[in-house]
UniProtKB/TrEMBL annotation:
GO CC term (a single one): nucleus
InterPro entries, A to Z: PMF1/Nnf1 (IPR007128)
UniProt keyword Transferase, yes or no: no
Protein name: PMF1 factor
Protein's cellular compartments: Chromosome, Centromere, Kinetochore; Nucleus
Length: 137
């Protein structure tokens, strides 16, 4: 195999002296390396509770089978991902703010009308007071 040839090239002097032993060392090295990798993978699976996460992911996939709309997936372009998530929220918030603004403007218009009516009433009362004062004198 290609990897064995690379191993032989690294230990050429040793291979020339004892080729059988070199092959045995290579086989043992590879088997120990594979066992070590499998052990590391199992440790990662145990530490991260990957089995449980994969089973919950399977449940989510199973539950989503009946949905007509495809699930959201990141596009890989952060600006587009943020835009797709934020624009609907911001549009909804903008319409809410516009509604509140219209309500406040209507409330302010009513208050301004009542203030003007109050001023008119005060002006009328001042004229009435002035007329009675002159009549009294």
């Amino acid at each position: 195999s290609c990897s064995y040839q690379r191993f032989v090239n690294c230990y050429r002097c040793f291979y020339k002296l004892q080729p059988q032993l070199t092959r045995s060392i290579y086989d043992q090295f590879i088997s120990q390396l594979q066992a070590s990798i499998k052990e590391e993978i199992q440790e990662v699976k145990n530490e991260g509770n990957l089995e449980g996460l994969f089973s919950s992911l399977d449940k989510i996939v199973e539950a989503a089978k009946d949905q007509e709309e495809p699930a959201w997936r990141p596009s890989g372009i952060p600006e587009e991902d943020v835009r797709s998530a934020m624009v609907p929220y911001l549009l909804k918030h903008r319409s809410y703010l516009r509604r509140v603004l219209r309500e406040k403007e209507e409330e302010n218009r009513k208050v301004a009308e009542s203030v003007l009516m109050g001023r008119d009433k005060i002006a009328e009362l001042q004229q009435l007071i002035q007329a009675r004062k002159q009549a009294w004198q």
